[in-house]
Amino acid sequence: MQIAPLPKNESARLSALKSLEILDTPEEEMFDEITKLASMICDAPISLVSLIDETRQWFKSHHGLKARETPRSLAFCSHAILGDEMFVIPNAKRDNRFKNNPLVNGDPNVIFYAGIPLALDDQIKLGTLCVIDNKPRELNEEQLQMLRLLGKQTVRLLQMRKDRDKLEIEKRSAERANAAKRDFIAAISHDIRNPLNSLLGMSEMIREQPIPESIHHYVDHIKNAGEVILNLVNDTIELSRLEENASVLNNEWFHLSQCLDVYHNFFKQETKRKKIEFQLKNEISETVYLLSDKRKLEKIIWNLTANAVKFTHHGSVTCHVSLETKADENANLIIEIKDTGPGISPEIKDRLFQKYNEFVPEGCEISGSGLGLSIVKLSLEEMNGEINVESKIGEGSTFKVKIPTVWKREEFSPEQKNLSNQKDSNLPNFTTRKRVLIADDNELNRKVLKNYLKPLPFDIVEANNGIETERILGSDQFDIAFLDIEMPGKHGTEIAKALSSEKTRPILFACTGLCMPEEKEHILNSGFEYFMPKPYLKEELYSHLAEIAKKHP
Predict the structure, then answer these.
(1) Alpha-carbon distance 366 to 360, whole Å?
(2) 3-state class (DSSP) for residue 322
(3) Which of 87-91, 95-99, 389-393, 436-440: highest mean pLDDT?
(4) Which residues contact 423 (CB under 8 A, 6 or more apart)?
(5) Residue 133 to residues 58, 74, 141, 429: CA-CA distances in angstroms?
(6) Cβ contacts of 502 within 8 Å, gap of 6 or more
(7) Where, per the database record, does this protein carry 4-aspartylphosphate (predicted)?
(8) Which SS3 state, helix, strand or coil, does residue 248 take?
(9) What is the pTM of this model?
């Protein structure tokens, strides 16, 4: 018996084999199918995918053989990997290299052997695909050719497996990175929202006081700065969801004025402050309803307009909305935002929608965060929409958006007209006094909420930690309870879960800076009826309370 010498490139060969990370892995169907097919084609009882390491031949697939490995010194495959062509032994008992081999004279009685080396592109032989019989024989040319083809297929499977594993590792790494980014954004969002709630709420309280107009002006600046920070936090969360494909379309029927009323009032005030003109031209009839994602549509219009207002210091900003109808219920919603700002140079225009692309238009001293336009682009891709930009330096820019939508026409009933005339900012109409609990460990947050509730017939009790909140709710009856989520002593969700079994329990508002979608879902599932993100929006609060007032006046 002769022991096969080591290949000249043994070190590189072993390194390549180990890089596959395949040794001692479980059987896999794709390799087992190869060996089964090889046995059928060659009419051989045994077929192996054999890989040679330092001391053994190890079988990734072992059709017709129970063993998973044998010593390298006894392996026929150790000889096969020394050449480039098919290695064939018709009768091992008559071959001096093998006639005294224990694998020949004992189990599994290797008499006939044919193995094709499994070679990588750089001629590194990892092992063989081989067929074995316990009697002398030959293979015809067709069988040899088929075995060669199966050998090539085996090498492809080895490479595909490595690529698959590499992709899986990269996928897990990306998932970990996304989870870390998500956790970081959630933590930053929470930590910023809490002080912003105090800042925006207190600035509104100060503005309601009889103070000089100059002080009002300063307070407006504080409020605007706070809103810029809040928008930046919201944009960061939105962009994160869009990048992870975690954002989903939520199509609903709505009247466009639901989007445009608050939008128009807000930018009317913003442009007035900057001493420029703002115009909204809505050509869509009040009887027309659209089926689309209302929240994403609002975000697109607001971001584009905010950008135009930010960079326009003289002249005007115009929003033109129209509907391009087709023969059926399908249509295109057309939105044009035009400004008389400094314009956008061609080189900036080409990278306008790239993430974190800060740009400073000519003649401007402020730059963008690079988030708003990225969100617009990603949202439009999700909605199958498109955006085009036309701009001239020194004359201004026009952003034209086209979004596919479905439309229908419905006349308002008298009751609906009545309801549409009632603005959300109107106070909720409670006819009986209500007992209300405000639980928050932050005194300023409690003050802001109390100020919003001051005009209502509410008897308010306060608590500043979770333990006290639970005690108060257990000893007295309340109609409504505003609970901070992360209170010391007891988490707000724990309190809500404990109340879920009570027959008479207050209507629960979750007041929190935890605003990631999964956080909101978890909080609402713990037993809260309403979710109030910080900083509080008075209109949103009154809208929720108006809903409660209808059921419990």
Answers:
(1) 6
(2) strand
(3) 87-91
(4) none
(5) 19, 17, 18, 92
(6) none
(7) 484
(8) coil
(9) 0.47
